[in-house]
TrEMBL record:
Lineage: Bacteria, Bacillati, Actinomycetota, Actinomycetes, Streptosporangiales
UniProt protein name: TIGR03619 family F420-dependent LLM class oxidoreductase
GO BP, sorted A to Z: alkanesulfonate catabolic process
Coiled-coil residues: none
UniProt entry keywords in alphabetical sequence: Flavoprotein, FMN, Monooxygenase, Oxidoreductase
Single GO MF descriptor: alkanesulfonate monooxygenase activity
Entry-linked SUPFAM superfamilies: Bacterial luciferase-like
Length: 298
């Protein structure tokens, strides 16, 4: 089982940004297999849609660091670990800009980038970037098409309804075409995963949601069925599971380790990432939790 962790990005640890490189190096030394970022732009005062089914946003989102900058820091501070996003809100970014940034990160890391992409869901964030939220699905699909062109063709170009990339010389490519993982449980999101993703990014939330059949096995079976119907090899779809303890707990190390062992026994998942956003006041405390989880689960 590969075990990864989110980088110090939100809440109290966001104020310790100069410690991100040390955290990345130490997590790699301790045996972490991957390091991850999320993508939040705002913490709305009166959100039209609350976070994770609630009415508000977590206080931790009032301080958040840029995901691309953190990935660049992790890429240059480490040598072995995968670096990834879970997820980037893809419709916010013009495809040419996103392709340049992701290519840079893949080259910096020597081909270790796994871009996890999603459609986004916060109306205020779409308003802030000037992108109509009702176009997010179409813009997402066009971005995936444009990324394929910019990563594989030279010259490259793309012409869609929402995004345009005029014919351009595109000599610098990623070390290898980054495997694109997509998130989502909605029917349209699952169909997108089945049709065109290299992998899927489900999540389990502790302590509320620990039914691995409902959270992982059943939707994964549906996605693989749709992939087969689309003429793809369903076995080629990878899965990286986010384990997300949302209640601060002194037993978080044991709780996460137990879930990781269940995941190994009860699912096909062989790579998890642990999001400790709510669990620490400083980077040293985070590293203690990382060490404890790796020792208990590996």
């Amino acid at each position: 089982m590969k075990i990864g962790f989110t980088l110090p990005q939100t809440g109290a640890v966001a104020w310790q940004a100069p410690q991100v490189a040390r955290y990345a190096r130490e997590a790699e030394r301790l045996g972490a297999d991957s390091l991850w970022v999320i993508d939040r732009l705002l913490s709305p005062v009166d959100p039209k849609v609350g976070y994770s089914g609630g009415d508000t946003f977590p206080e931790e989102f009032r301080a958040i660091l840029d995901p691309f900058v953190l990935l660049a820091v992790a890429a240059t501070a480490t040598e072995r670990v995968t670096i990834g996003s879970n997820i980037l809100n893809t419709p916010w970014y013009p495809p040419a800009v996103l392709a340049r940034t992701l290519t840079t990160l893949d080259v910096l890391s020597g081909g270790r980038l796994v871009p996890g992409l999603g459609a986004g869901w916060s109306p205020e964030e779409f308003e802030a970037v000037g992108v109509p939220m009702n176009e997010r699905g179409a813009r997402f699909d066009e971005t995936l098409d444009a990324l394929d062109q910019l990563w594989t063709a030279d010259p490259a170009e793309y012409h869609g309804k929402h995004w345009q990339v005029p014919a351009t010389h595109s000599a610098l490519k990623p070390v290898r075409r980054p495997p694109v993982y997509l998130a989502g449980f909605a029917p349209a999101a699952m169909r997108r995963v089945a049709r065109r993703a290299d992998g899927w990014l489900p999540a389990v939330v502790l302590p509320a949601m620990t039914d691995l059949d409902a959270a992982v096995n059943q939707p994964l079976a549906a996605i693989r069925g749709m992939a087969a119907e689309a003429g793809r090899d369903p076995g080629s779809l990878d899965v990286i599971l986010r384990i997300y303890p949302t209640v601060r707990s002194e037993s978080v190390v044991d709780d996460v380790a137990k879930v990781i062992k269940r995941v190994q026994d009860e699912t096909d998942v062989r790579h998890v990432l642990v999001d400790l956003m709510y669990q620490a006041d400083d980077v040293d405390q985070l590293l203690e939790q990382v060490d404890g989880i790796l020792s208990a689960a590996k």
